[in-house]
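[#protein-structures] MJ: dropping Fe2OG dioxygenase domain-containing protein here for a structure pass
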Amino acid sequence: MAGPEAGGSLAVPNVQQLASSSKDVPIRYIRPELELDQVSNDENSQIPVIDMSKLGGGLDDDDDSESAKLHSACKNWGFFQVINHGVAEELIRKMKVDVQEFFNQPLQEKMVCAQLPNDIEGYGQAFVVSEEQKLDWGDMLFILTRPVDGRRMKFWPRIPSSFRETMDQYSTELEKLASSLLSSMAKNLGLDLEKLLTLFKQGMQGMRINYYPPCELATKVIGLAPHSDGTGLTLLTQVNEVQGLQIRRDGKWIPIHPIPGAFIVNVGDIIEIMSNGEYKSIEHRAVVNPAKERLSIAAFHSPNFNAMIEPLPDLLVKDHEKHAPNYKSVSHQDYLQLGARSKIDRESRIHQMKIQPPSGAVKIEGPPSMVEKS
Ligand code: OGA
Ligand code: NI
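AK: finished. structure tokens for Fe2OG dioxygenase domain-containing protein:
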């Protein structure tokens, strides 16, 4: 894949370096519009928590009420946390230590893994496509971890020396967890489990390790601008105790409080499309702490390259009734290219996939004064 067109990024300053060398925040990071955002302070409004020990991976021993809770989480929230997920605590701990050690190195050591022009993998920043674009207050290391034979080891840190081995194990375990969740989702959607798993077999997995330096003007910058994940299913872990993930709900931003040891899971655009919109890919963002650095590891899971990205045909004939597809049907390759043309607006990949209702039949929400005249 090449060019910002394919998701590669223009070179921009290293934010960790910037934050450590001066207290001034360059204008390209300042976002006056953030002031208008409403952040919810309702402590009771938190994403559902799913106990994986009660789910049997879509098999008959799934506990009915836990299954129902998962189904509702995917439909009504698009985000949830999983506990008792079976990924060894020690492995997660090692992954966090290795990630922290990578970012603690001097810049020139990290630059060994630097993004190359027109490439999405490596150490740098994502989604910078123009010189005028506002920038996120964060750096990241992105590597494609699956399929295994597609790994490009030059982007995998050698320091700390345990990094590659730990990441390999972490990748394997998260893939298992993602498959188990997908199986339970398939059952909930009334889908043939094997069919869905086949789409994700030899699937793509990418790891995005985010580093958000502290910023004195924390409320005026954003660590990761609002977006929905273009992939299938994301499993996120927060590396230290500093919180910052927020999700959009009812026009407000809800801060997520991670449960120690849990993974935060979210439905990505591809699952929304495959479920024909029954499951929701929700917009989210990461805010910055004024005094402390924050790190997170997002593991993205997508179908294999041969899979079509489309509402699953079996869902369109559910209960002996035909349902109209709400999204287009494209090859995985073409789907990835859609991001290309969307340029700055990362959201528009899924917008391009949406089949618009014919004009004249547009559902009108809100008072008529809010409806745009055309
Ligand atoms: C992402 C993401 C959130 C976070 O990497 O796509 O949404 O808390 N990260 O870092
Ligand atoms: Ni995300």
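MJ: nice. Residues 50 and 82 are 5 Å apart (CA to CA).
AK: one more thing. The chain has a mean pLDDT of 89.
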